[in-house]
Each structure stands twice: as C-alpha cells, then as structure tokens.
Amino acid sequence: MKSPPFHAIFRPLTTGVAALLLLPPGCGLGYTPPPAPTSPALTATEQARLVRGHAIHQAKCATCHAFVDPSGYSERELRERIFPVMARKSELDPAARQAVLDYLIAVRQP
Ligand code: HEC
C-alpha cells in the first residue's frame, strides 16, 4: 500500500497551529466583549462612561486582538500592570483610558 504524500498529513497540522496562534492571549474560544452592564447604583455619567468604554474597546483594543476576559486578572493587575501598557498601545487620551478601564472593571467577574 502506498503511504499518503507528506503534505496531506502535514498541511492540516500547520493550519491547526496557525489557527491557535491567532487566538488572543489568555482568551477562551469565541469570547465576545459583553455590553456595558447597567445598574441602578450608577449615576447617568458613570453609566454613559461604561457605554463609551465598551465602544472604545471595540474601536481600539479590538484592532489588535479579540476581547481578553478581564476576569482572568485581579483589578490591581489590570490597573497597574496590563492596562497602562495596552492604553499606550491604543493611544487613548485620559478620558478614553478612564472609560475603558471602568468598563473592564465593571465586566470583570470576581
Ligand atoms: C497595538 C496592538 C494592541 C492594542 C491596540 C491593544 N493590545 Fe492588548 N495585547 C497586545 C499584545 C501583543 C498582547 C500580548 C503581549 C503583551 O502582553 O504585550 C496583548 C495582551 C493583552 C492582555 C493580556 C495581558 C497579560 O499579560 O496577560 C490584555 C488583558 C489586553 N491585551 C487588553 C487590551 C486592552 C483592554 C486594550 C485597549 C485599551 C488593548 N489590549 C489594546 C496588543 C495590543
């Protein structure tokens, strides 16, 4: 019996590896950013900021990678280690930074 050509085995393998590399770091399969949560405890300004944070996340952060679930990080880790780097990468102004950070913290599941 003739064995299958090398590329017939190899190609599906490389395609699989390439697909894995496209996944964002620390992110489960197909996770999409949840909408800004609403709560009666929030003022109208705070609520509007969360909605804006969600929109900015879609427009800026999502240009590089899919939504990375903030639940995987402590609030402190997000604020101090990750977010400053990502906000710089996204060239966010101070108001936009605050909106996205508030949004991420609001959608974080403790
Ligand atoms: C210019 C591309 C780029 C933009 C814009 C960007 N990121 Fe990232 N992000 C990366 C890369 C590359 C990594 C993985 C390596 C690293 O941590 O730098 C990453 C990693 C992450 C991680 C995982 C960090 C860790 O250490 O586990 C989170 C969370 C994240 N990004 C959130 C965001 C958020 C929120 C925004 C928007 C404010 C954003 N990113 C914008 C490129 C980007």
What is the element layout, followed by pairings?
Elements: H1 6-21, H2 44-59, H3 75-90, H4 94-107
Helix pairs in contact: 2-4
The protein binds heme C.
Briefly, what is this?
The protein is mainly alpha-helical and 110 residues long.
What is the terminal separation in angstroms? 58 Å
Biggest β-sheet, characterized? none
Number of helices: 4
Low-confidence stretches: 12-30
Task: Describe, in plain words, how this protein is organized in 3D.
With 110 residues, the protein is mainly alpha-helical. It has one domain (27-107). It is 56% helix and 0% strand. The chain contains four helices and no strands. The longest helix is centred in the first third of the chain and has 16 residues, at 6-21. The termini are far apart. Mean pLDDT is 81; it is low at 12-30. The site of heme C has 15 residues, from helix 3 and helix 4.
Features:
single chain, 110 residues, mainly alpha, binds heme C
